[in-house]
């Protein structure tokens, strides 16, 4: 923020960076978008609910932020790919991706249908893979960018009553951990926050998790982490180094 003000003073125009949120729900998704908006990012919110989307965009605009809304269904992989291409075409590049979509269904292996399981995985890991694959193309070409994924405790401690969510969160975590080193070698940071707490809409917990995502993004390359863990307190807060966070 101070650097932007200094640049304005001496006549340097700093291009506004773009933050794309896939799964901009009223909890972690919106809180994280607001956190980056406060750092002068242009934020693109997404949702299947057009009325909710319009309301949230207007609220951010009223607070003085640059905000845009795009309709997307994360269970439709083609619509996720189309979204990425449209945002890149309109704004030039995506500097930060936050994947926060999830099919939050309970169900044991006897309760959940095969079709329902596959559909849940299309959202929980298929859409994440598609978003990371498409957004990372530009980032790797520029050798600059951050990919942030909302993980969950079921990814490390699976629950038999939440089979599809457990498998999805494990896949999401492994996507981040598996790509961390090769992406880091090309100056692209992929990271996940593993959330081990129930998070309500517009809550302090959501804001704390948003701060963790910002702290991961703000880390200098030599301190990059692949994962931070949130368990209801600001535990394992990422190191940002001097001037970070």
Summarize the topology:
Layout: H1 2-9, E1 18-22, H2 28-37, E2 42-47, H3 50-62, E3 67-71, H4 77-91, E4 96-99, H5 114-142, E5 146-152, H6 163-184, E6 189-195, H7 204-218, E7 227-230
Parallel strand pairs: 1-2, 1-4, 2-3, 4-5, 5-6, 6-7
Helix pairs in contact: 2-7, 4-5, 5-6
Any idea what the CATH superfamily is called? NAD(P)-binding Rossmann-like Domain
What summary fits the major beta sheet? Answer: 7 strands, parallel
Tertiary shape = globular
Global mean pLDDT: 90
Cα gyration radius (Å): 17 Å
SS element count, helices = 7
Structural description of this entry:
The chain is of the alpha/beta class and 245 residues long. It has one domain: NAD(P)-binding Rossmann-like Domain (Rossmann fold, 3-Layer(aba) Sandwich), CATH 3.40.50. It is 46% helix and 16% strand. The protein has seven helices and seven strands, in the order H-E-H-E-H-E-H-E-H-E-H-E-H-E. A seven-stranded parallel sheet has the order 3-2-1-4-5-6-7, sandwiched between helices. Strand 1 (18-22), helix 2 and strand 2 form a beta-alpha-beta unit. Helix 2 packs across helix 7 and helix 4 runs parallel beside helix 5 (114-142). It is globular. The protein starts with a helix and ends in a 15-residue tail after the last strand.
């Amino acid at each position: 923020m101070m650097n932007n003000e200094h640049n304005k003073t001496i006549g340097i125009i700093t291009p506004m960076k773009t933050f794309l949120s896939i799964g901009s729900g009223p909890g972690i998704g919106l809180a994280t978008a607001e956190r980056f908006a406060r750092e002068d990012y242009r934020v693109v919110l997404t949702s299947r609910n057009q009325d909710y989307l319009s309301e949230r965009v207007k609220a951010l605009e009223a607070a003085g932020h640059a905000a845009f809304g795009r309709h997307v269904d994360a269970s439709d992989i083609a619509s996720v790919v189309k979204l990425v291409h449209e945002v890149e075409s309109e704004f030039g590049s995506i500097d930060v991706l936050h994947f926060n979509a999830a099919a939050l269904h309970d169900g044991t292996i006897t309760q959940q249908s095969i079709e329902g399981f596959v559909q849940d995985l299309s959202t929980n890991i298929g859409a994440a893979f598609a978003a990371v694959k498409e957004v990372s193309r530009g980032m790797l070409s520029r050798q600059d960018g951050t990919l942030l994924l909302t993980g969950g405790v079921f990814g490390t401690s699976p629950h038999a009553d939440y089979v599809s969510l457990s498998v999805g969160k494990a896949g999401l975590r492994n996507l981040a951990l598996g790509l961390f080193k090769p992406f880091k070698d090309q100056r692209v940071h992929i990271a996940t926050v593993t959330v081990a707490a129930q998070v309500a809409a517009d809550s302090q917990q959501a804001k704390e998790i948003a701060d963790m995502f910002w702290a991961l993004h703000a880390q200098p390359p030599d301190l990059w982490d692949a994962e931070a863990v949130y368990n209801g307190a600001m535990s394992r807060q990422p190191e940002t180094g001097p001037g970070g966070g």
